[in-house]
From TrEMBL:
InterPro entries tied to this protein: RidA, RidA_CS, RutC-like_sf, YjgF/YER057c/UK114
Organism of this sequence: Idiomarina rhizosphaerae
Alphabetical list of PANTHER family matching this protein: 2-IMINOBUTANOATE/2-IMINOPROPANOATE DEAMINASE RIDA, 2-IMINOBUTANOATE_2-IMINOPROPANOATE DEAMINASE
Gene Ontology CC annotations of this record: cytosol
Protein name: RidA family protein
GO molecular function, one term: deaminase activity
Length: 130
C-alpha cells in the first residue's frame, strides 16, 4: 500500500515539516490541530471554549478531506496547557461525537504552538470499501 497525503484549505496549513493527514489503506493518521482559523492562520480567540470548538472544526475538515467524518475517528489525543479545562473539553467533545466514542487520552503539557491552549491529533478508520 502506498501512502496518500491529505491536504485541505478548510483547515490550517501545516506550519512545519508535516502533512495535515496521511492515509494508508483505510487508516488515516491526523496531525495535531490547534485552534487556528484557516484563512488568517491566527488563533480564533483567547477563550478556551472557542479554541476547543475551532480545533474540532479543523479536525472535521481534515476528516472530510480524507473521505470520512469526525465520527470515524477511533483514537484522539488531547493536549492541554491547563488540565483544569478538562470538563470543558468533555462538553465540547460531546457536541461533536456520538456513541460509541473514540478511545482518548488527555495530556497536560507546558506549552503548545502559537500559544494555543489545546491541540488534538488522532487516528481515523474509514469504512471498508470491500
Amino acid at each position: 500500500m502506498s501512502k496518500v497525503i491529505i491536504s485541505t484549505d478548510k483547515a490550517p496549513a501545516a506550519i512545519g515539516t508535516y502533512s495535515q493527514a496521511v492515509k494508508i489503506g483505510t487508516t488515516v493518521y491526523l496531525s495535531g490541530q490547534i485552534p487556528l482559523v484557516p484563512e488568517s492562520m491566527e488563533l480564533v480567540s483567547e477563550d478556551f471554549t472557542a479554541q476547543a470548538e475551532q480545533v474540532f472544526k479543523n479536525l472535521t475538515a481534515v476528516c472530510e478531506a480524507s473521505g470520512g467524518e469526525l465520527q470515524d475517528m477511533i483514537k484522539v489525543q488531547i493536549y492541554l496547557t491547563d488540565l483544569g479545562q478538562f470538563a470543558i473539553v468533555n462538553e465540547v467533545m460531546a457536541k461533536h461525537f456520538r456513541e460509541p466514542y473514540p478511545a482518548r487520552a488527555a495530556i497536560g503539557v507546558k506549552q503548545l504552538p502559537k500559544g494555543a491552549q489545546i491541540e488534538i491529533d488522532g487516528i481515523m478508520e474509514l469504512p471498508s470499501t470491500y
